[in-house]
Amino acid sequence: MPERRGRKSSYTIDLALFTAVKDQLAVLLWRTPEEKEKWSLPWEIPTSDGTLADSAGRIAAAALGVPPSWLEQVCAFGDEKRHPSETEISVAFVGLVPAGTPPPVGGAYAWFPVGELPTLAPRHREMLDSAAATVRLRMDNSPVAFKLLPATFTLGELQHMYELLLGKRLHKASFRRALQAAWLVEPTDEWRTEGRGRPAQLFRYAPRKRRPAQRGIRLDLLTS
Amino acid sequence: MPERRGRKSSYTIDLALFTAVKDQLAVLLWRTPEEKEKWSLPWEIPTSDGTLADSAGRIAAAALGVPPSWLEQVCAFGDEKRHPSETEISVAFVGLVPAGTPPPVGGAYAWFPVGELPTLAPRHREMLDSAAATVRLRMDNSPVAFKLLPATFTLGELQHMYELLLGKRLHKASFRRALQAAWLVEPTDEWRTEGRGRPAQLFRYAPRKRRPAQRGIRLDLLTS
DNA sequence: TCAATAGTGTCTGTTAGACATTATGGA
DNA sequence: TCCATAATGTCTAACAGACACTATTGA
Description:
2 copies of one chain form a homodimer. Chain A is globular, with a radius of gyration of 19 Å. In chain A, strands 1, 2, 3, 4, 5, 6 and 7 form a 7-stranded mixed β-sheet that branches. A 3-stranded antiparallel β-sheet of chain A has the order 8-10-9. The longest helix of chain A is centred in the middle third of the chain and has 17 residues, at 122-138. With 224 residues, chain A is α+β, with helices and mostly antiparallel strands. The first copy, chain A, is 25% helix and 27% strand. At the A-B interface, strand 5 and helix 5 of A face strand 5 and helix 5 of B. The structure holds a DNA duplex (27 and 27 nucleotides).
């Protein structure tokens, strides 16, 4: 991860790459060949070519071979909290890859459920929490849930993903009604049979233009 | 704005400080005594003491004499877009001050309605757009509208602020009902008479703990 | 056949938006 | 008095949540 090519900068790009594993978010961590027990978020000291996001994309590609399906900057971290590098500040990015993406081989990278994380550098720990919060915050602005799913999926899988991200159970009929009203998915002609029970139809993400008017103002500040 | 004290860093902290002027957001810009026509967002090359947010707070205090009522990081900007400094990256912050805050005197600082901005450095222009978007995005997580109002305000003023931030008209009765349900304000025993019409009661921001359960899932992705 | 899961129709309590009405000041 | 604005009550269409029901597979 240390300086790779070109001239050195005085800041790092760090990436929190998430996927869904069963009923939890999982984050991709990296360890050096030397210190097999010290895990960290993958990071690099960027070269001068390209944008910050380009740099984050390179980190993801180096780890998984494929670009993330969604990538966004979280923010910069510069408190005195420690970082593997000795740079003053670090710019954190958050990325998503679909569930079922082949895991990286070799042992340098591994997925960790966010509930079972190893010890991380303080600044990385802080980044990770912010990154997860960013994903949840972006849910109703970006099709985040879809970016964590493969190209086709059942409505049950989609609902499970929403429940995972929202951290609460949803009502099946209401969820599907809302989904129809939002014109976010379209059915394919494939069905998937899984164990017992009626097969489920597969859908794909296909947003359509919609009535911009939606009902209701919510003044739902959580009183923090 | 250039290097102020302590050791120099290789990045800048830039601040987009907003207030409400009539029916528009306004942003605080700064110009050097030498170049009276080149306006920019106030910025500094931070010293090593304190957090990034501390640095942003210092910028605001230097400009207005008072700390902002709300301050949050937007993100880091590092594209090749130009910046008054020659640093590789800049960390943008967004701050709010109540409408009616005494404007800075002397001519180095001035409020500009976001609809009538002078030419800015490309990176500053980008920061400003992101900062305004951040304010609107945080609306339903933080009491942003209240931070743009003085300590006491009429419900009409509050509704106007929401309309300004949301960019659309709201229904008066519905707005007040939602406000009551959210337990965000409490009445004072003062009334303000303004021109003609019945005087309006003054309220203050006083959030109470609330039922965390709220009705409804919205799958309201705007199909971008 | 039963069990399990997918998908759908109907009912009901809640509520956003519309409208009307009252209240209270200035001109 | 008339007008303008604040504040509030009532009605209605829309909708979230609940429940029940049908559909379709494997065991």
